[in-house]
Amino acid sequence: MCSLDGLFANNRTWAAQRQSQDPEFFTRLARQQSPRYLWIGCSDSRVSANEILGLDPGEVFVHRNIANLVVHSDLNCLSVLQYAVETLKVEHVMVVGHYGCGGVQAVAEKRSTGLADNWLRHIEDISYKHGERLARANGEGQRGARLVELNVIEQVANVCRTTIMRRAWYRGQRIEVHGLVYGLDDGLLRRIGSSVNNGQSWMQCYRRIVANGRVTVGRKRKCRH
Questions:
Q1: Is the Cα dihedral 71, 189, 116, 108 positive or negative?
Q2: Domain of residue 13, residue span
Q3: How far is CA 10 from CA 17, 18, 53, in A?
């Protein structure tokens, strides 16, 4: 018996159910993908984009890595972003962190994870940058949660700084960048900071969030020029 037999059985059941509910589902899916959303999230197995958003396959384009980082030397992430923005014409780019992120928590606790430490240096830089704010946190758990939120803010800024987004906004493409955090304990998404919809406003948004001395969670506002 193949060790994946159970997964194949689950797949056959799922495919049969989808076809029963919507006979044209796979025909449409095979013809094209036309998602409105790009999800840049963590590789954590508990954080599934389609399931959390309640969307079908084909409705969200997904890039995942440890601690949902957007690094300007990461051609994998940048290639996904460019394809999503310039070919798929997504309308929303969502950077999605999650509370209880193992990579972020390791940095908050100054704990080594092995090879991944090299990747997590980007989170460590954020920790140093916002050291005073993190020092006010009550315990390692709260410090990790605040670092999760700060990381999302910094990665939203990194998305906005890419030549991909700057070109898109310059040519008038309607696209917004959002920072979100997912709660493992309640299954809910929370907005972090402000959404950005043009190349002139993102730095103002970022500076205002940082200058406030606290992370704004859950507020529904946009930064506009």
A1: positive
A2: 1-31
A3: 11, 12, 22
> How many helices (H) does the chain have, and how many strands (E)?
10, 7
Query: ∠ CA(25), CA(32), CA(159), 5° rounding?
Result: 120
Structure tokens at 194: 């402000």
Three-class SS of residue 61? strand
Are 125 and 74 in a shared domain?
yes
C-alpha span between 15 and 175 (Å, rounded): 33
**Rounded Cα gap, residues 69 and 150, in angstroms:** 12
159 token code pair: 């998305």
Shared domain for 26 and 41, answered yes or no, is: no
Residue recorded with tokens 């957007």: 70
Residues designated catalytic: 42, 44, 46, 98, 101
Q: How many residues does the chain have?
A: 225
pLDDT, tens digit, 9 for 90 and up, residues 93-152: 999 999 999 999 999 999 999 999 999 999 999 999 999 889 998 888 999 999 999 999
User: In Å, what is the CA distance from 67 to each residue of 47, 77, 91, 136, 169?
Assistant: 11, 13, 23, 22, 27
pLDDT digits (tens, 9 = 90+) for 93-108: 999 999 999 999 999 9
Q: Is the pTM of this model over 0.85?
A: yes
Instruction: Say if residues 148 and 161 touch (Cβ distance below 8 Å).
Output: no
Total number of domains in the chain = 2
